[in-house]
Amino acid sequence: MPKLYTVKAGDTLSGIAWQQCEGRITWRQIAADNNITDPRHIQIGDKLVLNCDPEPPDVGSFPYIVQPGDTLDTIAREQCGGDLTPEKIAADNNIANGSRITVGQELLITCGQGGKRASIPVIDLLDEPPDDQPADQPDEMIYFVKSGDTLSSIASRVCKGLITWERIADDNHIANPNHIAVGQKLVLKFKGASGGEIVRPVKLAKGIDVSHWQGAVRWGTVRANGVEFAFVKATEGDHFTDSRFADNWQGMKDAGIIRGAYHYFRGDKDVNGQVERFLDTVDLTALDIAPVLDVEGQGNEAVSNETMVSGVRTWLEAVAQRTGRTPLIYTAMGYWNAHLTNQFGDYPLWVAHWGIESPALPKGWDDWTFWQYSDSGNLRGISSNVVDFNKFRGSRQDLEDWIAGR
After folding, report:
1. pLDDT tens digits, residue range 378-399?
2. What is the per-residue pLDDT across 331-362, written as a single tens digit (0 to 9) for each?
3. Active-site residue, selected from the candidate residues 132, 296, 366, 400
4. pTM value?
5. What is the full DSSP assignment across 202-221?
6. Is-catalytic flag, 11?
7. Which of 9, 84, 143, 362 could be a cystine partner for 336, CB 3.0 to 4.6 Å?
8. Residue 166 appears among annotated catalytic residues
9. CA geometry: angle at 7 spanning 6 and 10, to 5°?
């Protein structure tokens, strides 16, 4: 059933497609359904009809060109959503040996009994209009602080990242950004400091994170579909190395994807052994993201808060000393606030918070560096059901500069 959506400040058609329809349609479909000739020019208050659950097109048989890393099995799953077997593709194309298909080979695909190509919610991270721009912004607006607000969350949620929390503090003569009161009136100014053009948001670099649960990843296809960075699981505790790590680590490099590796912390295991396992496994270069420590509850249910705090601190300090890099911390507010302290804010934060406009931050941090915003993404090149989606707080060039400065 189509629904009506009113364009808000900072909206883009691609953002609406993702946030309102969870990527089940593209910005191009929204533009076509609403007779929009220039997707860059949408206005605050415009009414859009969103057909988030279109019927799969009746396409009968259609041609498919084999891509690097394809197998008949992955083609069947990704093109027809499981409504076709690899044996049927082989039979329809007179392929005697299903393991022998070549890149560039054209196949005839017929999905299911009715010839309908599956409507798979595959998110194409490159599916954005050219020069993607938000709906026109006012020069400034008035905002009254609500319970739970921080200047950082206001900048991200209310201002859509168009201005920074430092800019809000300066414009409102706030000396201590930690001291804002519920009901306080803020002026949010969208023009440049010298009255210049309205500040436009940077396209944030997009990434994923994977482990052996995603199986064999076709990194070339992943990169071609808009992924600019990725985190991969390397180790856990002092006893486990991810079986896909070596292949993933090399595959990302070959595909030109900025790499990051994470260690899943276990408070019930020897900390020094965990440090050694990670450093023995991961060969970091100056072009890679600094080491990541994954701190969450699974496997740590019986560990005391004191042990967690001490162990996390020991791992971070030891890895920083051995690598000369400041590690990142991956966590979510709920677990961290219940079991750890506010004394780790000097480490960059990779925060997990899904399905919202702006993530809640654990105590000790006033901003995020990476944000895992979905745990249920679908992406070409990954044959498993879901993959985590992430953003960096800046462009790919910003990410490269950030890495070089650390």
Report:
1. 888 887 668 999 999 888 989 9
2. 999 999 999 999 999 999 999 998 777 888 99
3. 296
4. 0.61
5. P---EEEEE-GGG-S--HHH
6. no
7. 362
8. no
9. 150
